[in-house]
Amino acid sequence: xxxxxxxxxxxxxxxxxxxxxxxxxxxxxxxxxxxxxxxxxxxxxxxxxxxxxxxxxxxxxxxxxxxxxxxxxxxxxxxxxxxxxxxxxxxxxxxxxxxxxxxxxxxxxxxxxxxxxxxxxxxxxx
Length: 126
Fold this sequence. Notes:
By secondary structure, this protein is an all-alpha fold. The chain is built from 4 helices and no strands. α1 runs antiparallel to α2 and α3 crosses α4 (about 65-110).
C-alpha cells in the first residue's frame, strides 16, 4: 500500500518532469521521440499514484512485498531499457561518424601529380 505522502510525491515529481520536457520541446532541445518516452512515463506514474490499486495488484501478482519496491523496480527496468536503446543509437552514430571521417580523409588524398586538396577549414574564403 502506498502512503498518501508517497502518492503526492509521485504526482509532483511527474508533473515537474512533464513541465521540464515541455519546456525542452519548446526550445527545440529535445527530440520528439525522447519527449514522447518521458511524457508517457510521467502519465504512467501519475496513473499509478492516482489509482494505487493498479500497482498494488501488479506487485501482489509479481510477489513483491511492497508497492513502493515494485514502483522502484519497474522504473529501474524502464530506465535500463531506455539506456540500452540509447547505447544502440550512440553506437550507430559513432559508426557513422567514423565512416564520414574515413571518407573525408580519402577525399583529401589525391593521386600523384594532382594537387592535394586543402581541407575546408584552411581554404580561403572569397
